[in-house]
């Protein structure tokens, strides 16, 4: 019952955070890249042109994937609470 359990818990938490952040950020990153290529091709340098599509895609990712995101957090929380007896002993 050494520090391995705590390291595993921390590793699982960090992996969960990385997965959840990537689910939100990657679609926004793809849209931002497409808008940047469009701006470079047309020489349009308007700041709001790059901001608004990324904002909309991020909100859509949260709306569409929100249930999955909450389910992942709940599963991790349930596993964490279930592991309390093995950590205390």
Automatic annotation (TrEMBL):
Residue ranges that the Swiss-Prot or TrEMBL entry lists as coiled coil: none
Pfam families to which the protein is assigned, alphabetical: Bac_export_3 (PF01313)
Organism in which the protein naturally occurs: Colwellia demingiae
Gene Ontology terms: biological process: bacterial-type flagellum assembly; protein secretion
Membrane-spanning segments: 12-39, 51-70
UniProt keyword Mitochondrion, yes or no: no
PANTHER family found in the cross-reference section: FLAGELLAR BIOSYNTHETIC PROTEIN FLIQ (PTHR34040)
Record protein name field: Flagellar biosynthetic protein FliQ
Gene name of the record: fliQ
NCBIfam families associated with the record: fliQ
Annotated function: Role in flagellar biosynthesis.
